[in-house]
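User:
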Amino acid sequence: MRGGIVSVMVIIWVIAVEIIPQSFLFANKGETTMNLSVKDNSVVQQDIMLKPDQILGQVKAHQALEFAQKVLDIPEGYELKNAQRVLQNQEYAWLFRYEKSNGENNGLHGEHYSFIVAENSMQLLGVTWMDGKFNEHELPSKEKTTTIASVFLDRIEPGLKEKLRVNFINKHDESIQVKDDKGKVFPIVVSGMKFKCYKPDTNDYAWVIVGSGDKVITYERGIIWDNGRVTEKWLHDSWLAER
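Assistant: Predicted structure:
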């Protein structure tokens, strides 16, 4: 009789192993993990959102922030609001968002300075500076845009510029929301000259957008395009709002 009970228990265990994820069967009690699940051959992540005082406790996040601070000039009047571990092109990266320290036009769709750094390679994947001061001002010429973009590329990754093939240089607009002196929210356009390039060895795209005052207001690289953008748009508030 005992042998029969053992046999039934073995059968139940085998069935359980087949139909229940092993991470559930063998997880330690009280253990918290970040799970990666695979659906339709794509990785789905559970984002980690950190406040500024929590970044030191995450080694990779702290390293990514220190690297970015060495190659970027964080604009005055902005302070770090949060950091988020995300997936871009199936690779983990850290997204950092700065907003105005006086609270002016903070929040989604407002003014911000954000950048994203690859977790393993510590490569700057992109940066954007959405500020109302880049609205309706004189933009640099195509020649000056080329010079500014080239200097910027050499600064963040020496040798990258030589791997790029210029596609076009044209005016590019983005939209943000700001408040007037009565607190009414209204949209404004942030404009720049877009220096868009193709990178043949990786079959993807990169660009630098230069705004008024010869300031780089956007940079992105490793952008996969297949009848439309495939790469995630972590630097774009309109895309974040739809998630």
